[in-house]
Amino acid sequence: MSIGHRMTLEGYEGERVLLSYDVSGEARSTAARVCQIVFGRVRGSDDTRAPTRIQEGFIHRPGVVWIGQSVLVMPPRDAEELAARLRPLGVRVATGPVSIRRESLEAFRSPGRAVFRPPGDGSRRWIRSPAARG
User: Fold this and answer.
1) Is 1 part of a structural domain of the chain?
2) CA angle (111 as vertex; 106, 2 as ends), nearest 5
3) Pick from 93, 81, 113: nearest CA to 7
4) E-strand stretches of the chain
5) I want to staple 44 with a disulfide (CB 3.0 to 4.6 A). Which of 30, 31, 52, 123 is the partner?
6) Global pTM value
7) Is the backbone of residue 113 left (phi > 0), alpha (psi -120 to 50) or beta?
8) Environment class of residue 18 by beta-carbon count within 10 Å: exposed (0-12), middle (13-18) or buried (19+)?
9) Domains held by the chain: number
10) Rounded distance, CA 71 to CA 41, Å?
């Protein structure tokens, strides 16, 4: 299951920072943890009665845009927080201010990417969010 890679430009107007991170190719468990921090994860168990828990990642925060592999544009406060969480894991992080219009960031949205959400009826199945249909 995936909670998708939606970008939330809505809810933030202000300065932006470009953040790039790099995980060593040999550090597979670190790479998996970094993905959970950045993109979020769905936690559940084999027990269908147990609720599924969604832990959203940084890309779900207002103003955060995933540009591509290991590169995000985000508000300065979020960039500082993400860097502070990644560096202790041994991840190389670089940041810098960037001037980019909101309209330009819209180009990085991918209408074909699915964003999945729980249906709200307590079942373990997931449905595609109408907002993801472009």
Assistant:
1) no
2) 110
3) 113
4) 16-22, 40-43, 53-56, 65-68, 71-74, 92-98, 116-117, 127-128
5) 52
6) 0.70
7) beta
8) middle
9) 1
10) 19
| Residue 55 counted as domain residue | yes
Decide: helix, strand or coil at residue 112: coil
pLDDT at 43: 73
Amino acid at 71: V
| Residue 24 CB neighbour total at 10 angstroms | 11
For 21-26, what is the mean pLDDT? 88
Distance CA 58, CA 48 (A): 28
Q: How far apart are CA 134 and CA 132, in angstroms?
A: 5
Write out the residue range of the structural domain in which residue 98 sits. Answer: 16-133
The tens digit of pLDDT for each residue in 65-93 reads 888 889 999 999 999 999 999 999 999 99
Between β-strands 116-117 and 65-68, what pairing exists: parallel, antiparallel or unpaired? unpaired
Phi, psi of 67 (to 5 degrees): -85, -40
pLDDT over 50 (residue 3): no
Cα radius of gyration (the chain): 16
**What tokens does 103 get?**
């309209």
Amino acid at 38: V
Burial class of 30 by CB neighbour count within 10 A (0 to 12, 13 to 18, 19+): middle
